[in-house]
Design a protein that fits this description.
The complex is a heterodimer of chains A (66) and B (166). Chain A has 66 residues and is of the alpha/beta class. Chain A has a 3-stranded parallel sheet, covered by helices on one side. In chain A, helix 2 links the parallel strand 2 and strand 3. The longest helix of chain A has 9 residues. In chain A, 30% of the residues are buried. Helices cover 36% and strands 19% of the residues of chain B. In chain B, strands 2-3-4-5 form a 4-stranded mixed sheet. Chain B has a 3-stranded mixed sheet with strand order 6-7-8. Chain B is globular and about 65 Å long. Classes of the chains: A alpha/beta (66), B alpha/beta (166).
């Protein structure tokens, strides 16, 4: 697992990376990064992760350094 | 939270997992676009004017005065080589002190807002400080623009007595 900053996020997204916000749905609905999907941490398991493409990079984020 | 999520994906054998450590707060603090129900164009970053006169610490007062006159502006931002806002110089200052450098005549560390600051907060600031302008910078202090009270007032929902006027 690699930690990235915003410039690296932009670069990865331009290359097809998927973004996952792991905050609760209500917070995701209020505001999220463009194109990000929502999988709340408590709901992150084999089943919910199946919607992600294994061939592409995945960037996970929450609100800040939590 | 994102650390645990990233490691969980690693445990599920996803080969390319990255963690954007600074997260959503960092993204919006740089004025980058977001989506969602609470996203509004009425934020500091969208309302700030970008065509602001700027100068360096070593620039002379007379050069700055000419630049302000040319732009019809009342304030000049003093920036370093990283575009970090170090100070501000008013038109009145360069008219009264014609001989110094920006570093000698500037007002250091002016108040700033992040680009994701909401309209209500901006109104509150203008009301409390009787200010006409405030700078907008990123978390790293990099200048994005200058926000005018009149632009914030214009963006306010139409009510009889806008909060910015109080």
């Amino acid at each position: 697992m690699t930690q990235v900053d915003r410039n690296e996020v932009k670069r990865l997204v331009s290359q097809g990376a998927q973004m996952v916000e792991v905050l609760p749905k209500a917070e995701y609905e209020e505001e999220h990064l463009p194109g990000a999907i929502n999988i709340f941490l408590k709901h992150l398991d084999r089943k919910s992760a199946a919607q992600l493409d294994r061939e592409r990079p995945i960037i996970v984020y929450c609100h800040d350094y939590q | 939270m994102s650390a645990r999520a990233a490691w969980r994906l690693v445990s599920l054998a996803f080969p390319q997992v990255f963690r954007y450590t600074a997260g959503k707060a960092d993204w919006s603090a740089y004025g980058l676009p977001t989506e969602g129900k609470s996203v509004t164009p009425n934020r500091a970053g969208n309302l700030a004017r970008r065509d602001v006169p700027t100068c360096s610490l070593g620039d002379r007062a007379d050069t700055i005065r000419q630049q302000l006159q040319k732009n019809g502006a009342r304030l000049c931002a003093v920036l370093n080589e990283h575009r970090v806002l170090l100070g501000q110089i008013s038109a009145e200052k360069v008219e009264s002190e014609t001989d110094g450098t920006a570093e000698e005549i500037m007002t250091s560390a002016p108040t700033t807002f992040r680009p994701n600051a909401a309209l209500e907060k901006l109104c509150e600031f203008f009301r409390a400080h009787k200010a006409e302008t405030v700078w907008v910078t990123t978390n790293d202090g990099e200048l994005l623009g200058l926000l005018y009270r009149e632009d914030v007032q214009r963006a306010e929902p139409k009510v009889e007595e806008p909060a910015c006027m109080h």
